[in-house]
Amino acid sequence: MSGKPVPVATPETQPFWDGCQLRLLRIQWCDRCQQHFFYPRVACPACGSPASVRWVDASGRATLYSYVISQLPAPGYEPPFIIAIVQLAEGPRMLTNLVGIDADPGVLTLDMPLEVDFEPRGEMAVPVFRPSTASAA
Amino acid sequence: MTPLVSIVGAAETDELGKLPGMSAIELAAQATRNALADAGLTTGDVDGIASAELSPVDLADYLGVRPSWVDTTSVGGCSYLAHVRHAAAAIAAGQATTIVVAHGESGRSRVGQPPWRHTPGGLVEQFEGPYGVVGPVSTFTLGALRYMRTYGVTPEKLAAVAVAQRRWAELTPRALRRKPLTVDDVLSSRMVVYPFHLPECCLVTDGGGALVLVSPQRCRDFPKRAVQVVAAAEAYDSPTAAGLADLTSSPVFARSSAAAFAAAGLSPADIDHLMIYDAFAHLPLFGLEDLGFVERGGAADFVADWRTAPGGTLPLNTNGGGLSYTHTGMYGMFAIQESVRQLRGEAAAQLERVETSFVQGVGGGTFTAGASLVLCRDS
Fold first, then answer.
1. In the CATH scheme, what is the code of domain B5-114+202-377?
2. ipTM for this model
């Protein structure tokens, strides 16, 4: 996937990016608030506490919340391609690309089930999503 | 209503559009000179300067001003609305007497223009940038399909936003796009990011604008009737598109407008003229609903019935907006300018009776920043 942007980790986000290289979608859980959050940070954005936060492996299951089909050139991308907001089964939303499906509104249905995949980027990997292969959602 | 601060000078650059012969700082400086002339003042009268991407310290020096107050708030296209709020507080506190809020952006020609901010390891750059995002066009637009599906908004009705605003631009000689536009024209135009066609995305232009602000106690000492800022509010949310709680509305539109209406003691029924920052065609729809002018889910029908177009009951974006008038990148200054013109009776598409105007701005790569101003004629 040469040419596409390679994310730059910070010390606080490194566990997330390490997870991606292991094909694990790591998000965070706050024991006090009893909810997940994304993007990664030290303290829970709901209660402000760092003590109650721990990393968990997300299921990788998600649904399609909304999307655009970009016709604009972007480094490493061949338009048209899909930029999507997906809703993780655990609750948080992520911005991502959809892969394994045509960039065609006729086949892209909001709320369709998706599952995570990982796309190599240099020495890193980024989470992307593809239509779920599970039989019944 | 007790004014917070008074606008006694307002002007744009002599020209808008493609201006490769002017740098960003000169665009801001020319707009400032024009606004000071409008107020009957000179640079020697200025003791405060606010600008966003462009350093107000640089602009002050370029103008020959030695200010004792600056505001560098840079939160996207609504920065200038925030500057007005901050200037009002500074003037009330005695920190400055005569503040210029200035915008100059070589958004199209990119002469002396800083590049788009890119912070390696930044939040947006880490978690949203790597996915083929090339600017606000990739991210601001993300909620539109969800909105359209939730409320049954057809592509024709989204296109009607661009058509309604073009009708205002047809009446506005300075608007960049003035050729009559139909819904069919929009739908047969090039797709930029589905579901947005080219006329549903803002222009990319060069230009500038500036305001001169003073204490309401001084506002009768100037050549033109002042425009009073009677309320101002700001609201901030996630810089990430995925971090917004809802993508079928704009929480910052709702929060800043509610605070501004409450501070003014007014409601949407009291507003004669409305400007809603329109970087993309769905923003006026979100704004009409989030500000309380139209019930949730009803904005697309409202616009498609031409209620916001010339002759309609709620004049909206009467310069043609970012879609047809101009959009340098940080459009908020031009929304304020049009409200001032309407309240002064100087607009190209002048309305018959305008006592109150509401300006709703937005800033960031998505609905990250919101700022609202309630403006009135000096009574």
1. 3.40.47.10
2. 0.96
